[in-house]
């Protein structure tokens, strides 16, 4: 998918497209030295990473505080911060990433694109409660574990937005053994078997 196809799938401003272009250039430059994303998926960066992450923002664009856990090369957290720069300028995004080289990359992107975001180079388990209105994650851990992190880092009434692949029904079933929660599964635009799970009212069983 090219920038044009991304634009057809999602109505975003020229300013946002320019920031995504800058982000793509930084990803390509740094990916040569540190493995931020697989080189195969870099060929389809606009669909596999940008559009995939943008779906997460669209599920909670009214938030003011957002924590993305295990951001890696910045998915979905950096894309959320880029979309927010034009559409929700008051939103503050916290990116938690335990790998120091990736966290340095994320800090560079935040600085060069002037994003409303901060990076915490730490394991999410060690970070003091963030009291975020939204927490997100992609490819970090099974749902049951993610709910433990969400429970600790969400403000009262907050919600989680997780990108999940085809195994999501069994992950929900397993998580329900340990957690009570309300959820909705929204069909992914980028993965035919994947969903965006929006989850609220999380408490231990
Ligand atoms: C499979 S990658 C996914 C990265 C990104 N979310 C994506 O979808 O492209 C998982 C990332 O989480 C980070 N990570 C793993 N365990 C973590 C933890 N406990 N706290 C914070 N980051 C963690 C890893 O360093 C890695 O960058």
From TrEMBL:
Family annotation (Pfam families): GidB
What GO biological process term is on the record, naming one? methylation
**Which Gene Ontology molecular-function terms are recorded?**
methyltransferase activity
Query: Where this protein primarily resides, as one coarse class?
Result: cytoplasm
Q: Which domain of life is it from?
A: Bacteria
Q: What does this protein do?
A: Specifically methylates the N7 position of guanine in position 527 of 16S rRNA.
What family name appears in the similarity comment?
Belongs to the methyltransferase superfamily. RNA methyltransferase RsmG family.
Q: What is this protein called?
A: Ribosomal RNA small subunit methyltransferase G
Q: Which organism is it from?
A: Plastorhodobacter daqingensis
């Amino acid at each position: 998918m090219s920038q044009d196809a991304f634009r057809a799938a999602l109505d975003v401003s020229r300013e946002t497209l320019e920031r995504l272009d800058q982000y793509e250039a930084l990803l390509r430059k740094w990916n040569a030295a540190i493995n931020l994303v697989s080189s195969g998926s870099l060929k389809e960066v606009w669909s596999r990473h940008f559009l995939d992450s943008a779906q997460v923002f669209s599920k909670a664009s009214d938030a003011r505080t957002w924590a993305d856990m295990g951001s890696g090369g910045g998915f979905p957290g950096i894309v959320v911060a880029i979309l927010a720069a034009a559409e929700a300028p008051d939103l503050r995004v916290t990116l938690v990433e335990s790998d120091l080289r990736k966290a340095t990359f994320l800090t560079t992107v935040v600085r060069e694109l002037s994003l409303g975001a901060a990076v915490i180079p730490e394991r999410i388990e060690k970070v003091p409660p963030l009291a975020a209105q939204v927490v997100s994650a992609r490819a970090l851990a099974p749902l049951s574990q993610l709910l433990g992190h969400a429970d600790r880092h969400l403000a009262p009434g907050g919600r989680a937005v997780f990108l999940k692949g085809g195994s999501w029904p069994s992950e929900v079933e397993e998580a329900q053994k340990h957690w009570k929660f309300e959820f909705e599964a929204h069909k992914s635009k980028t993965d035919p078997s994947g969903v965006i799970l929006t989850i609220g009212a999380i408490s231990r069983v």
